Write the structure tokens for this entry.
Amino acid sequence: MKQQLEAIRNAAEKELASVKLPAELENLRVKYLGKKGELTAILKQMGGLPASERPAIGVLANEARTFIEDHIAQCGAALKEHETESKLSNEKLDVTVPGDRHKIGSRHPLTIVLDQIKDIFIGMGFNIAQGPEVEFVEYNFDALNTPQNHPARDPQDTFYIEDNILLRTQTSPVQIRVMKSQKPPIRIIAPGRVYRSDAIDGTHSPLFHQIEGLVIDKGITMADLKGTLDGFAKSIYGEDAVLRFRPHHFPFTEPSCEMDTRCFVCHGKGCRLCKGEGWIELLGAGMVHPNVLRNCGIDPDEYSGFAFGMGLERLVMRSFGIDDMRLLYENDLRFLSQF
Ligand code: DAH
């Protein structure tokens, strides 16, 4: 029996040395230590031994059992370690391989220039204001000192929703909303969409964008208007931009003016861009009319201010040399991907 035990021990050691899979290990455990296993079979025979031999064989049998159990445990640990290692090496990530590039698109040219303009005015201490595109006739016209018989009120020029509601034709009604809801000092710009009943062509669209500006405080003069707009134009077109202010008429400002920049293509000689004028109109502006201040509950004897309004599309078309406004709305990727 002693030899049998030794033989089992040696066989188990040998077989365990070549185990590669957890299932093989389990089979060996059953083969040697299981209920019907080889070692168990021997232990069962011990009852037939003379009582004097039993203790010595018992010790040997236990040693053999412990020996095999230890080896199985070691072998199991080694298998597990190997499994973890191969898992790690299979899953390893090469961070130096170039990734998949996602196409994220680019900003629309209208947004690019609007962001520039916002940055400039925010830098001068302005806030951004907003108003609805569906607006009261009163705010779009009456409160802006634009009388009942003004041509801009003609249904051929303006989209009416109801008698007293329209799609705003300008961002100027935001001036009214801001002055009615805030106390001076006021310093805002209000970018947004506006609508006019115009047929589409290279320079017209029934929907376009304006940027309104409004400053109200004590002692504001035309000098503040000129200084602010001069600073704005030079930020956009460069320090050497040459500007001029021309008298003009708007119902909601008095006096009113338009600001031109000397053509930055021909420098005043006259070219296609400036249509031979040598100057390019940038915006309309003026000192807020006392009637408009009164309409908003602001005392014109105490406060004064200036306002301005510009068309975003025109600025964008000039900035990028775009000669047809329709390109800005058609969402043609061949056009948009250039920005
Ligand atoms: N709202 C005018 C337009 O659509 C532009 C404008 C001119 C706005 C002068 C102003 C301003 O605030 O002072 O033509």
About this structure: Residues 170, 172, 212, 250, 253, 284-286, 307-309 surround 3,4-dihydroxyphenylalanine (CB under 6 Å). The chain has eleven helices and ten strands.
